[in-house]
Write a sequence for this structure.
């Protein structure tokens, strides 16, 4: 059984027109651990985890219902990566479960199609996008430290850091604002890091840091995103005016498709005529 090297490679191998019969897929297994019944690919398959925003929450389930009934229903909207059912002490489900798809658009389609769906012809279930928070807020950071220095120190204590997001002081660009957001590979690693870095557990550069969950980033339906024609720009020197910023963007992107530039303090919104031009500008300005 060969492993698949990347998410892109595996996505190409999926037949997205016809749902796979996951229940008969020999690459999948069922395990029960920490009060969960998990139906997912075996680690030996090399099937990569899907991106953020692909998990849905399913509530109001009958307590004797398991993956053998959920998968045939929810796989109608696309290939399923895994199913997690929460169990009570008697081995029954707690009335809710989580399903992860391989594609964000399939998760959103499942919410539309199956929220208030009548299962077993008697029970109406609730379905919504799951809040998959992978981001921590860390405060009381010395203002003279860079994101690279902060990441280097934190990696000595916790695993799975993807990025350290730092914002500079508008009037003093060489200083940060005294806090950062730390993005992790998944919610589990973020939760473990939050426990390890709890108040009083870690002092860095002579300061006790403050750690808590960051406000979850909203997960937007890809169909809605297709109609967005605005870009958000941040970390702009506060001394630059809207007019000056507009001229800079004209030089970089041309004048044909920029409708409006609205700058506030150290950030701005740039309005384009069509979505395609906004996407091209995003790639050039990254």
């Amino acid at each position: 059984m060969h492993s698949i090297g990347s998410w892109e490679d595996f996505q190409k191998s999926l037949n997205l027109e016809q749902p796979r019969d996951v229940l008969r897929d020999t690459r999948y297994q069922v395990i029960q651990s920490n009060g969960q019944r998990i139906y997912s690919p075996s680690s030996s398959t090399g099937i990569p985890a899907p991106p953020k925003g692909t998990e849905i929450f399913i509530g109001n389930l009958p307590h004797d219902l398991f993956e053998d009934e959920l998968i045939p229903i929810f796989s109608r909207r696309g290939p399923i990566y895994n199913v997690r059912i929460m169990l009570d002490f008697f081995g029954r489900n707690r009335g809710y479960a989580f399903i992860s798809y391989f594609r964000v658009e399939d998760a959103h389609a499942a919410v539309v199609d199956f929220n208030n769906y009548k299962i077993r012809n008697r029970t109406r279930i609730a379905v919504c996008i799951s809040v998959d928070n992978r981001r921590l807020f860390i405060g009381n950071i010395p203002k003279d430290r860079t994101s690279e220095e902060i990441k280097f120190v934190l990696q000595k204590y916790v695993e799975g850091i993807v990025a350290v997001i730092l914002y500079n002081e508008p009037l003093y660009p060489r200083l940060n604002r005294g806090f950062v957001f730390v993005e992790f590979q998944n919610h589990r690693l973020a939760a473990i890091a939050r426990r390890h870095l709890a108040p009083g557990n870690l002092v860095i550069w002579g300061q006790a840091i403050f750690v808590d969950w960051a406000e979850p980033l909203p997960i937007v339906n890809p169909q809605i995103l297709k109609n967005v024609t605005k870009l958000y720009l941040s970390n702009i020197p506060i001394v630059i005016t809207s007019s000056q910023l507009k001229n800079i963007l004209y030089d970089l992107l041309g004048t044909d498709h920029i409708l409006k530039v609205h700058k506030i303090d150290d950030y701005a919104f740039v309005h384009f005529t069509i979505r395609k031009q906004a996407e091209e500008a995003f790639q050039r300005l990254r």
